[in-house]
Design the sequence.
């Protein structure tokens, strides 16, 4: 574990960073994470309402002692009338990548969600060419389940996505 790296709720001063180029510009290097420009207003309104922590989705900041490093998020993923899981996502600013922070943040998020919600399963979908995220998920304990063909529309085309999952019994909660 990297000392000091933790998850925390989004503060008002984080909102421009959530909407900063690392998350919103095609030239940011977030080649697999850019879905076109989006307005900052909707997120600010939702933050004012529930701090981006609702019953069906949430966002937390990845930070160290000094600074904002990126964010993680989750959305409800229904599996029929009786239960659901969470689908998680992550985006780190370019300077924070490649140092193990993405692995750690996804471990922390999984522990948080298993500790504070009753789901049995967390999954993550990533582009077949996003090797960094696939490695980070594997190092975080996720299992590769297969490929969803032509699932995600981004930048003019449909892309194949790899599915990873982590079950409650596979995580040791502190
Ligand atoms: C994907 C992301 C969250 C991973 O976090 P990270 O902190 O960079 O990842 P880590 O340092 O924990 O681990 C990355 C692993 O991938 C490897 N890796 C990184 N870039 C790679 C590349 N281009 N090709 C092959 N392996 C790569 C690293 O070597 C490391 O593996 P190792 O420890 O076995 O050497 C982060 O890079 C990011 O935010 N990227 C942009 C947004 C994005 O793609 N989000 C996911 C959308 S589904």
Sequence:
């Amino acid at each position: 574990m990297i000392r000091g790296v933790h998850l925390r709720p989004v503060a008002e001063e984080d909102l421009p960073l959530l909407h900063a180029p690392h998350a919103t510009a095609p030239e940011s290097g977030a080649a697999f994470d850019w879905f076109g420009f989006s307005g900052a207003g909707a997120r600010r309104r939702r933050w004012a309402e529930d701090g981006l922590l609702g019953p069906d989705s949430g966002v937390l900041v990845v930070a160290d002692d000094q600074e904002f490093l990126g964010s993680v998020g989750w959305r409800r993923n229904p599996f029929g009338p009786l239960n659901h899981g969470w689908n998680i996502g992550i985006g780190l600013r370019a300077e924070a990548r490649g140092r193990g922070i993405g692995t750690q943040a996804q471990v922390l998020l999984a522990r948080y969600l298993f500790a504070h919600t009753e789901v049995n399963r967390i999954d993550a979908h990533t582009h077949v060419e996003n090797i960094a995220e696939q490695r980070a998920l594997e190092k975080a304990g996720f299992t590769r389940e297969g490929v969803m063909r032509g699932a995600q529309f981004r930048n003019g085309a449909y892309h194949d996505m790899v599915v990873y999952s982590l079950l409650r019994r596979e995580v040791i909660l502190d």
Q: What stands out?
A: The helical segments are 15-18, 21-24, 41-50, 101-116, 131-139.
